[in-house]
Amino acid sequence: MTPQSRAIPVILTRPAAQGDRFAADLRARFGDTVQVILSPLIAPVFPSVTVPDGDFRAVVLTSETGAQAAARLPGVPRRAWCVGDRTAAAAQALGFEAQSAAGDADALVGAIVAAGEAGRLIHLRGRDSRGEVAARLTAAGLPPQR
Question: In terms of Cα–Cα distance, which of 61, 83, 70, 63 is closest to 17?
């Protein structure tokens, strides 16, 4: 196979902070063989929401942005179940007692169920999400407030 004569362009459309971090990772791994083009097409927007009344045991977070949103809301519990280490680190930096599932939605749901979590959960997520965390927790008998 002949080597590429020019750097391969990679366009990153994630929010600026995540795009910058991913760009640094790409450059560290591939050096000059990639030309990173940062073009953030999306940015987090935090709509005004009210946390439902009641006593919640923990918040379920599936992203760093979710941790940022949770930190802005009064009444959100300070205990957090987090999908992965990066989300847990962000939550901890924002004052949460964060538990990382060290993986994906499967790992998160599995960790919460395996821990025998008791009490009400609240799941903060964006409008667009994947992994069906709330539906899967509901199926496991732990319906979170969304």
Answer: 63
